[in-house]
Amino acid sequence: MPPPAPRLFAFDNTYVRDLENFYVRWKPTPASKPSLIRLNTSLACELGADPALLASPEGIEALAGNYPMEGAEPIAQAYAGHQFGGFSPQLGDGRALLLGEVIDANGRRQDIAFKGSGRTPFSRNGDGKCALGPALREYLVSEAMHALGIPTTRSLAVVATGDMVRRERALPGAVLTRVAASHVRIGTFEYFAAHQGPEQVKRLADYVIARHYPELVASTQPYLDLLAGVAERQALLIARWLGVGFIHGVMNTDNMTLSGETIDYGPCAFMEAYDPATVFSSIDRHGRYAYGNQADIAQWNLARLAESLLALIDTDSDQAVARATALLTAFPERVAVHWLAVMRSKLGFDESGQASEDSQLAEDFLSLLQAGKLDFTNAFRALYDAAAGNPLPLQALFGNEAGFGAWHARWLARQPNRADALLTAMRRANPWVIARNHRVEEALAEAVDRMNLAPFERLLAVLQNPFESRADDIAYTEPAPAEVTACYQTFCGT
Ligand code: AMP
Ligand code: MG
């Protein structure tokens, strides 16, 4: 018998309590020889947990799923989803388990979940496992996104299981412990709309409203307002992604949260040279989830949420469709509003300008980047440096690039002076360093092939401080060699 489980978290599990029939109670598959690869001590503290206890032998066993945590009620959540445009009526947690919820130090309810903890009733043909590389990738990129200030799930721990998982080759297995505002996805609504009908969809919608949109509890049209609220958070999220060159890579409806957090870091990557057609995912052959398509896809996904909610929006189905359609038709405009705000920050502009002129300045800068195949992150950071008094990086990047002089003159004229607050906002909108693909791959390869975690730890430390320039870390700001980017591919469900 394993030792008794220490009390790691103060669980309080509303999903299990309020939504019976929306999940299957299940247990993790034990790991043969767990070892702690990474623990997020500051996040542990935020969750009210003791990092030393989590890192103790009992804690590591618990984080590998080898014995139950006190108060946890592990479940596999049911969901469906549109994947690359086609409906899969039965997805669900095939390799994940929700352990339960805790209230964090900021008073926010957070899910604590495993990924890679073994087969469940939703596993279909999958093995329920996660390889160490993808677990570390999710840890790295989600924590990088958090440091950039972008809503995201977090990563609490990665434990190697000591078991191998079969992929193209045998790879070390791992369990990632993920923290999320919740794991309710558009696909969760699709599942209950497809299989059960409006009563159950209403229960789920009421749960989501209470948990994520409490201001709508008293609304006279709560379900239309829920759709509007989700759309607004997604519009903001997509604008934030675009602002840092993030490409999610697999924006299926089961990977889009109702909370507005980025979720599921599979084939994600950051764009280097600016090109809206950029796509890295090996299975995205038609560029459905390309950088520049993400707003359109979010709208498409929201239409699937709307369909699931129609019966709640209006008892007259024509009316329901008309109301939902009117709302979603405005989505591109909502993204544009948030995108303009992001771009104004990136260009160092206050709010005083004409929206159309500021948008045009942003578009024209992006056109210059695209024509010159220039690095998106470094070019915007060079603008910040110029605004802060150092024009050299901007000159070095653009040299005699045709058209830059004229654009630069317009940019200078638009905002001749910047108060400290505006300059600070500009800095925070233009990271000095992002998770560059070749750096991520290098760190994961060292970790997986040689069990050398030093490059991973170093990269993580660099990414946790993305806005401050440091001479020691300058190599992390360099784009990948062109030949690496040309054939860079990321993989899904690995
Ligand atoms: P993803 O592409 O990671 O968003 O996963 C899509 C669906 O496939 C979800 O239902 C996952 O639970 C399931 N899935 C992905 N990988 C595995 C695996 N190795 N074993 C079982 N199910 C999996
Ligand atoms: Mg997923």
Characterise the protein shown here:
With 494 residues, this protein is an alpha+beta fold. Helix content is 45%, strand content 12%. Strands 2-8-9-7-6 form a 5-stranded antiparallel β-sheet, with helices on both faces. A hairpin with a 3-residue loop joins strand 8 and strand 9. The longest helix is centred in the middle third of the chain and has 23 residues. The model has no long low-confidence stretch (mean pLDDT 96). Magnesium ion binds next to loops.
SSE topology:
Blueprint: H1 14-18, E1 23-25, E2 35-39, H2 41-46, H3 51-54, H4 57-63, E3 75-77, E4 81-83, E5 86-88, E6 96-103, E7 109-115, H5 132-147, E8 154-166, E9 170-180, H6 186-195, H7 198-212, H8 222-244, E10 246-247, E11 269-270, H9 294-313, H10 317-329, H11 331-347, H12 355-372, H13 376-387, H14 392-398, H15 404-414, H16 420-429, H17 437-450, H18 454-463, H19 482-486
Antiparallel strand pairs: 1-3, 2-8, 4-5, 6-7, 7-9, 8-9, 10-11
The structure holds adenosine monophosphate and magnesium ion (MG).
The site of adenosine monophosphate has 18 residues, from loops.
Q: How many discrete domains? A: 2
Which cofactor or ligand species appear?
A: adenosine monophosphate, magnesium ion
Q: How widely separated are the two ends?
A: 33 Å
Stretches with pLDDT under 50, minimum 5 residues: none
Task: Report the total helices.
Answer: 19
Query: Would you list the SSEs in sequence order as H and E?
Result: HEEHHHEEEEEHEEHHHEEHHHHHHHHHHH
Radius of gyration over C-alpha positions, nearest whole angstrom? 23 Å
